[in-house]
Amino acid sequence: MNFELSEQHQMLRKTVREFAEKEIAPIAQEIDKSGEFPWDCVKKMAELGSFGILVPPPFGGTGPDKLGFLVAVEEVSAASASVAVSLLFSSVASFLILAVGTDEQKAKYLPALAKGERLGAVAIAEPSGGTNWPFTLQTTARLNNGSYVLNGTKCFISNGGEADIYLVLARTAPEKGPMGISGLIVEKGTPGFSFGKKEEKLGLRGDVTRELIFEDCRVPVANLLSESILMPLSGIMVTIGLPAIGAAAVGVARAALEAATEYVKQRAVAFGQMLANFDGVQCAIADMATMVEASRLLVYRAGSMPADAPDPTPGMMAGIFPCEAALEVTSKALQLLGTYGYTQDFPLERYFRDARGLTLVVQPMEVRKLTAGRLKLGLPPLVPPGGAPPRPGGA
Ligand SMILES: Cc1cc2nc3c(=O)[nH]c(=O)nc-3n(C[C@H](O)[C@H](O)[C@H](O)COP(=O)(O)OP(=O)(O)OC[C@H]3O[C@@H](n4cnc5c(N)ncnc54)[C@H](O)[C@@H]3O)c2cc1C
User: Fold this and answer.
1) Regarding the domain delimited by 230-377, which CATH topology (the fold level of the hierarchy) does it fall under?
2) Which of 46, 154, 236, 379 is the most exposed place for a label (fewest CB within 10 A)?
3) What average pLDDT does range 356-373 have in this prediction?
4) Sign of dihedral through CA atoms 358, 361, 365, 369?
5) What is the pLDDT of residue 394?
């Protein structure tokens, strides 16, 4: 067992780290304050090739390299988790098209997504609730005269309004329940597709999240991504979505740990003693460093697993532990800076707010846990909320 990254991945990490420190970190506070979409950073990330890490060379990328993508997400997130979430959702959109799209869809959409010339978004959540979407989803797509007629509203959609290519979940066969939910590719500018409210969020403020509104929006049949999207989407959430959220959490936690370490080494308190000389501070640093390291190992493990691994739960764990650890690490780090940590003079309060958001993105923490728990118990992963899960052995 080798715990070191390959030379190629170390090189990728170095390149993205240098880029993030030079181009993203200096404006990260500004991105957070303004809540504006960080187009400057996104364009530069595109030039670096970051949007093509999950896409193979025939479609303009350099992958698919899951581990490399997770390494890149950590580095970007250490500078700005908002920018990392934007990269994440566009890349997940590419990965989904790669996994289930037709040859025509791959040829049409992947090259521009891989080069970052066009951004992607994944639209699942709705005002009626995002957690239990296989049961609660209300957006419909009705087949009519050679196209799907899409009606409904999506909310909290990352890259909303900024992206060009939206993977939208809608019910095409309501009688089939969760299996009758399809994925459709909807391009910005399609008549009947407009944007609603932009959310003002506590954290991840540069990850612009908007409502998408579909009113008799006609989508060509050729844009049907998958007739039944539940299983492929669940698979992709485990192989890349949740581990990428975990990688973003590692980035935020690492940034908080580094900021706190720097601070306690130069902050003199009682009788000129540096904070770093206090036992309690040393223990806190050890706790934080251990959580960052353990989180990263979980993320790397998920990134190294084959797509057909018989036990998918490590992918889920990579979206659980690192996010909870990031909450704790950012909180402890903020505490070490005292009231300075609570002010906007330091980035600790941003790290703390961003870490909170990472427990909600994609799936709330409860669902990440209950799905992993059910699989560990040998129970079916999908159960209607409040529904009695069958007992092991079918009794
Ligand atoms: C920064 C950010 C970016 C996002 N980007 C996107 C995006 O690009 N695309 C997208 O589709 N969505 C996106 N979301 C939305 C996110 O996926 C949803 O918020 C999430 O799925 C939860 O849905 P909800 O907020 O409607 O909560 P609800 O479904 O209303 O649930 C509220 C709370 O109830 C609890 N709960 C609900 N059901 C259960 C259950 N079965 N068991 C236990 N507890 C339960 C949980 O605590 C949950 O947080 C984003 C969210 C954030 C914060």
Assistant:
1) Butyryl-CoA Dehydrogenase, subunit A; domain 3 (1.20.140)
2) 379
3) 94
4) negative
5) 47
- Decide: helix, strand or coil at residue 187: strand
CA 88–ligand 1 middle distance (angstroms): 17
pLDDT of the residue at 395 = 41
Question: What residues does each domain of the chain span?
Answer: 7-118, 122-226, 230-377
Give the model confidence (pLDDT) of 130-167 as tens digits: 889 999 999 999 999 999 999 999 999 999 999 999 99
Chain mean position to CA 326? 14
DSSP assignment letter at 391: P
Give the E-state strand segments of the chain in sequence order.
120-123, 140-144, 147-158, 165-171, 181-187, 193-198, 209-220, 224-226
The arrangement of secondary structure in 7-118, i.e. its CATH architecture, is Orthogonal Bundle (1.10)
| Alpha carbon nearest to ligand 1 atom 48, residue | 364
CB-defined site of ligand 1, < 6 Å: 89, 121-125, 129-132, 156-158, 204, 207, 209, 357, 360-364, 366-367, 370, 385
pLDDT for residue 2: 82
What CA–CA distances, in Å, run from 59 to 27, 168, 344?
A: 32, 22, 43
Give the mutation target among 136, 154, 360, 363 for probing the ligand 1 site: most ligand atoms within 8 A of CB. 360
- The residue to mutate among 82, 229, 350, 361, having the most atoms of ligand 1 within 8 angstroms of its beta carbon, is 361
Spacing, Cα 358 to ligand 1 middle (Å):
11
Nearest-angstrom CA–CA distance, 319 and 298: 9
Q: What is the CATH number of domain 122-226?
A: 2.40.110.10
Residue 263 host element (H or E)? helix 242-266
> Do the domains 122-226 and 230-377 sit in the same CATH topology, yes or no?
no
Lookup result for tokens 């997504």? 113
